[in-house]
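REQUEST FORM: STRUCTURE PREDICTION
Request ID: SP-0412
Submitted by: Lab K.M.
Chain count: 1
Length (residues): 252
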Amino acid sequence: MKKLSITALSLFFLLLVSCNSPQWMASEAIGTKIALDSKAEPLADTGFQEMLQPFKQQLDVQMNEVIGHAETDMRAHKPESLLSNWSADVYRVAASEYLGQQVDVAIVNLGGLRTHITAGPIRVRKVYELMPFENELVILWLRGEDIEELLHYFARIGGQGVGGIRMVIKEDKATAVEIAGEPLDRNRVYTVATNDYLAEGNDYMPQLTRHSKRINTRILVRDMFMNYILKENEAGRTINAALEGRIIHHEE
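STATUS: Completed
RESULT:
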C-alpha cells in the first residue's frame, strides 16, 4: 500500500508540472515592408473592407471638397521657395491674428512640408498631405542674438523657410540680416511664429528653446492652412507666392 501511494503521488506531481504554461522567449524577429498600393489588395480582409466602405465614401466626399485655388505650382526647396514663403507668411498672419499685433518672424522647416501644391483647385485632401502631422502653431519671444545664431545654421545648410527676414549667405554665414526692413538687433526680443516641433529644438534648432516666453495656441497647423485658404477663396483671391530674395547666396 505504501508503494502504491508513493507512485500515485509521483504521477500527480508529474501531471501538475505538465499542466503549467510553457514560458516562451523570442529569439529572433524578421520584418518586411508591404507597400500599401494595388499590389496589397489581395492581402486585404474583404469583410473588413465592406464594413469600412460607407465610411470611406463619406470621407472621400469631405476630402475632395475644393476650398481654394492656387495660381501657380508651389514647391519647397532651398534657399528660398514659393511654398516655404507662402507657408511662413500664413504662420505670421495666424500668429498676428492670435496676438492682436504683428509678429516679427516666422520659421518653417522645409521637411515639415510633405508635398507640393499644384496650380488649380486646392482640395481638403491636399492640405492633409501637406501637413499630415498634429503640429500646432506656437509663438515664441526670442532674443536677436539667438535668431542670428539660428540663421547662421540656415546659412550652413543652404537655406530654410523664413518669413519677415532677409539675409545673404556668405561663406556659410548669415550676413546683411534684416527683420521687418531693419538690421537685426542682437539685444532686441522678437516674436517668432513656428510650430511646437521646432519650438522643442528639433531639426537641429536648439536656439528656439531659449525663448523668454512661449504661447501654445492650440491651433493645428493643418487647420491654420485650411482656414487661410478658405478665407482667401471667400474673398475671391487665389493662393499665390513670390520669390522675394528672403535668402540669397552671395556671388563672389
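NOTES: The chain has a mean pLDDT of 89.
Reviewed by: T.R.
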